[in-house]
Amino acid sequence: MTRLSLALCVAAAALLFVPGVFEGAAARGRPSTAAVVSPARGSGSSVDGPKVPATVPAGFVGVVVDGPAWPDPNIDLAQQLDLMVSSGVESVRAQFNWASAQPYSSWAQVPAGEQSNFVDIGGIPTDFASFDQLVGLAAERGLTVLPVILNAPSWDGRSYKGGTVVIPRSTRPYAAFAGALVQRYGLRGTFWSHDPYGGRRPIRMWQIWNEPNIHAFWPQPYYAGYLALLRAARAAIKRADPTAKVVLAGLTKDSWLALERIYKIRHARNLFDVVSVHPYTRTPRGVITILGHVRQVMDQAGDFAKPILADEISWPSSLGHTSHNVGYDFATTEAGQARNIGELLPMLARDRASLGLAGFYYYDWAGLERQNYIAFDFSGLLRFDNGIFVPKPALGVFRSGALAMEGCSLKWPLATDCTP
Predict the structure, then answer these.
(1) DSSP-based three-state secondary structure for 227
(2) First to last CA, the chain
(3) Measured between alpha carbons, how far is 75 from 155 in angstroms, rounded to an integer?
């Protein structure tokens, strides 16, 4: 099936499920943050569609991509990215797993049969293959990528009871890895000189860790350890690309209180260019309320111009399938998931300027939906069932809302192409 025929089939199928930072100066005199968002809609395309007025800037609509869609060599990632483009997605957020890229601290540790998989980065064997695939295929389709640099390898890692990741024992190796990623995929990245996929979409924003304000991702209290990591990573990133933007780790639960504490630490505000939060809550209105609290904390701290990313928003369709809601009151049905998404997207478009919202990412693209697993297993817009990605009602609603935000009736073949 060609990409065009796939897009038309997706568009038709999605409609069956439908149930019923800023371009200029923001509200309240906050200066424009256009520098942190993508170019104007339609730019950068070799086959640009007609330019139409849009309610959101290019790059505003995103999804989180992880298992089962990526990284898995048995999955047709290109097909999933095509579906994302036709569904209005313009940016993907993905975990760049440090432990998987640099599992060995020296070449002597690499098994002889695996050495061809690695390249030398400052003496550390490094496997970029899965990152190359995602970045290259995304660029080919005009999609931007927001990497979350996460999870330390055992040679510089520290496990802890109750943790779902391994945190770094020291800051320097993590920072060196972050710098290497920028040197490969950033504005002057070496990847773009030999990109086999034929697109060029340098990564301009880099997110440092995930949810450090909960125990699953960092032992508490987290401020000193995480901010030391952020400081080292920021320095390495800015050395490699002074124009790159550093994104604060997504804060969850009482995110505004965690952010308020960060602002009270001397010079901490200078360590990040973008604030990110995970406003998990029961209702769409609750998402806007949480973002409002975050904006208020930022404004009170004098950070009027700094934008916000809602880099994880979700309603798992896990009701009746699991009781493991990991401390959030957000479980619903497939119909409820679709309804909440349909209500939220127009709110985000309407309130983005007053909130200073540069974009959002729905969590996540697809889920495994295993019975009695954690609720997030049911978060996807699609479910992976016996080797097949099956659209849920939420996908059609997401597509309808995203295209409406963008002023498009169809997007193809690039995320930057828009048919009004």
Answers:
(1) helix
(2) 25
(3) 30
